[in-house]
Specification:
By secondary structure, the chain is of the alpha/beta class. The chain contains eight helices and ten strands. The strands form two sheets. It has a five-stranded mixed β-sheet, sandwiched between helices. It has a five-stranded mixed β-sheet with strand order 7-6-8-5-9. Strand 1 (2-6), helix 1 (10-23) and strand 2 (30-34) form a beta-alpha-beta unit.
């Protein structure tokens, strides 16, 4: 079974995969993690997949509008942005205003992917214009820039900051509440393994699934 999932779900869904395989001997779960917009495009172009987990409703809608989803997508998690800085915060980043400073090295996600669309909303809410040095195609790529010390700060999800552990520091900011992302999941209409796909979706929606997501820093509906 193949699951297409937003990059920010990498750690949680990898854990889901291991537990699902253990509970269903003989089942193999393969993941394709990337930006939700890229995944939606791949699905609409015929890429074989069983399940789609999107970081934003808009990207799920791209698939459902073409008849690519079986049943109604379900919101299973929520996430919000946080500022990620290299350990120790050497550039002394304090908040969103630092993202307007041309003297800082800044990474954002491209607006085509959910983390970039959310970033646009928070800057609008703050009345600021960001000056990014690089636009990344998914949130993990933006986080990697921070981990490697290539940028002074990036806007990523708080779950990604938590997953990075001691490698980065996180800075919360109030405008993050203006751009909370709803994550949705669905079995795909052309799923080669529809029964197994449905069981996996139910596992994600189960109490155990909610616990794993909560441990990762997601809010659950």
């Amino acid at each position: 079974m193949t699951v297409f999932a937003a990059a920010s779900l990498t750690e949680s869904f990898t854990k889901f995969g291991s537990e699902f395989e253990a509970a269903n001997p003989g089942t193999k779960v393969t993941f394709n993690f990337a930006g939700s917009s890229a995944l939606a495009q791949q699905i609409n172009q015929g890429a074989p997949a069983d399940v789609f987990a999107s970081a934003a409703p808009a990207n799920m809608k791209q698939v459902s509008d073409t008849g690519g989803v079986s049943g109604d997508p379900v919101t299973f998690a929520r996430n919000r942005l946080e500022i990620a800085v290299p350990k120790g915060n050497p550039a002394r980043i304090t908040g969103l205003v630092d993202f307007t400073n041309a003297g800082r090295k800044i990474a954002l996600c491209d607006e085509k992917v959910p983390c970039g669309a959310a970033a646009k909303k928070v800057f609008e809410a703050a009345g600021l214009t960001a000056a990014p040095d690089t636009l990344e195609q998914d949130v993990k790529a933006a986080l990697t820039k921070v981990r490697l010390g290539e940028v002074d700060a990036a806007l990523v999800y708080r779950t990604d900051v938590k997953a990075a552990g001691v490698e980065v520091d996180g800075i919360a900011f109030p405008e993050a509440d203006k751009a909370v992302n709803d994550y949705s999941i669905a079995t795909l209409a052309k799923a080669p393994n529809a029964t197994t796909a449905g069981a996996f979706v139910q596992f994600v929606l189960s109490e155990r699934g909610r616990a794993v997501l909560g441990e990762a820093g997601f809010d659950t509906p």
